[in-house]
Automatic annotation (TrEMBL), chains A, B, C, D:
Name of the encoding gene: mtnB
Organism name: Pseudoalteromonas arctica
Assigned EC number: 4.2.1.109
Keyword line: Amino-acid biosynthesis, Lyase, Metal-binding, Methionine biosynthesis, Zinc
Protein name: Methylthioribulose-1-phosphate dehydratase
Similarity-based family: Belongs to the aldolase class II family. MtnB subfamily.
Amino acid sequence: MHNNTAISELIEAGKWISQRGWVPATGGNFSARTNSGFVVTASGFDKGQLGSHTFIELDHVGNRSASAAKPSAETELHLCMYKLIPAANYVLHTHSVAATVLSRVIKGHSLDLDGYEMQKSLTGITSHLDTLSIPIFDNDQDIDRLSLLVSDHHLHMPIEHGVLIRGHGLYVVGRTISEVRRQLEGLEFLFACEIERLKLVGLES
Amino acid sequence: MHNNTAISELIEAGKWISQRGWVPATGGNFSARTNSGFVVTASGFDKGQLGSHTFIELDHVGNRSASAAKPSAETELHLCMYKLIPAANYVLHTHSVAATVLSRVIKGHSLDLDGYEMQKSLTGITSHLDTLSIPIFDNDQDIDRLSLLVSDHHLHMPIEHGVLIRGHGLYVVGRTISEVRRQLEGLEFLFACEIERLKLVGLES
Amino acid sequence: MHNNTAISELIEAGKWISQRGWVPATGGNFSARTNSGFVVTASGFDKGQLGSHTFIELDHVGNRSASAAKPSAETELHLCMYKLIPAANYVLHTHSVAATVLSRVIKGHSLDLDGYEMQKSLTGITSHLDTLSIPIFDNDQDIDRLSLLVSDHHLHMPIEHGVLIRGHGLYVVGRTISEVRRQLEGLEFLFACEIERLKLVGLES
Amino acid sequence: MHNNTAISELIEAGKWISQRGWVPATGGNFSARTNSGFVVTASGFDKGQLGSHTFIELDHVGNRSASAAKPSAETELHLCMYKLIPAANYVLHTHSVAATVLSRVIKGHSLDLDGYEMQKSLTGITSHLDTLSIPIFDNDQDIDRLSLLVSDHHLHMPIEHGVLIRGHGLYVVGRTISEVRRQLEGLEFLFACEIERLKLVGLES
């Protein structure tokens, strides 16, 4: 995929994600793996109004190949996800209320969901009886250290769809733009359901 | 009704339903009974952006008469609803947060609502003092087995407006497109109210 | 005010109200007092897509003067409000989740609010220290009987801004279209706040 | 900055804020510091449909220099914020459900947030481990008295991003229009998260 194609897809995805309220206050960042390396959103822009000047182009090892804009601080974690999951061509990092709150009130190291038909919107899940497990990592301003933690975890428990960062948000991956958007939408639906369910049955249930 | 008329109505309904967030992540499916059999949405499309190519045409016994697209896995349950309820000409299957969560936290075999004026948006209900009862079936990836369960239930307790599948969503029927849309909107309003009411008074109330 | 002016204002208000989700499933009805009597929405139409054919014209005593459409079942309660409150030129009847649920979980005969700055959006309220009291009447399918109850109540406790019908919705009045819309918006904001507050502090607080 | 530039920016901000539901029922008011003094919204207008005629121009000491419209009752508090915080060029005062409810259920004199990545959308906050503290003042219809209280507080505990008025809403400041909008959006996101978190863990946690 050419950089320009990826950038167009991410601009479109950004509008859609912003309308849902998942990238408030210039938060979030998006990236894609391309022929020449990667494209990733620059820091500090409204993700609902991206343009081609709001992207950074990186080469295959993640060095900036053109443009003087400041790459997002979390670029390192995007590159980490691409390294760990060879099939991933897109990474979307979003900040929804549901992802932020769920990842705080769930005290363990993963959000484990079952009993929801919508789990099947995640590639590889074929039944509501399966458990969908999304790892939760404690937030860390040191992105290198956080990336190392994610990599270590992946060695004995492969990450499939994405990860939650506690009190921070979601990183979700996909092979195609439609897969990554579907997985984001499916996960956000499940987070919204789980928050509502926990309000009714209590955190201890 | 001709297939094309039904398809136009379902495309329009899909936009409206998608805007309300009730068919996330390519979930949900819609169908209509027509002169030549049935039309039903194909699997895997965004239900807010349907086109004529995203529908499957079936004959009177439910066999595919044209088009090579994959019918939705839940087509069988649509056909089951048409068989059980001769007056039904439309079936909308949706996935809202409220329907998903209510059908999980209510442990019994039906959601029973009373005291709401909006119950009267359901055909045949004339007072808030009536009880509106929507059967809840446990989710099952085996749609034939699930359809059989729904049929058995209908024998001794006729289904009038629709059914809930636990942790999955709603199937709602109607004679006309406006009736099925009104019943969907009325039920979703009632689900939203009941969730909020239960948060305040507790699940045991 | 001419009927046509009132109808235009109510069509516009209907779009705005529908977008906020306060008249789902063809619910709700709107009216205005005019030179020649009253105009009121006909039954069974989507209140977000009103046209001049969806209104009934009534004379000064409330008899239908033209048009064969069925008046809304709740027209009687609109006429009752105009009789009780001579300054009222508009009545909007809406069905929001918050009004429906609050009027059920509050067991007494009024919703009493204080401590909210937004109370001042209601005409005559000048401080958050005032108590804003909205009477709650039990729902009744017999609108004549319900109207009588509202009239009786008004004799010893004058209704100022509107009334809640339990499990049903809100009737709000205003002298001008902008006043009635502002009062509707202010009350719905307060209902939304109060529902959230009660979730946090509990119903007994 | 010229008055006209500031007015254009605030008209645009008003549309955006109104769409999010943070200035219902003509509530809220906005202002900017300009070359010739200040511009501030006039009272009683829908903040989502502002025009140049809905602004009051004030000179450097806050006296009305032109226009006969009634300044917002809360203009005094805007001027107070500009006096206390020399770097502030914009003040947005909004009424969201979350700000209104949180400021009531939190009984102390500040809302203290930590553990949220989104705290970093507030200028000067660089880590989720920092505590973001927004002072809460009891509401008072006497704006001069309220302004005095805010000024006193500022002397021993400088206000950085804004203040909450209990049961009333938020005042947020910024050096540029994009900073004040980002800080508003970030704070509202945090308020929404904190309300949801408290519903799950309880007010005492």
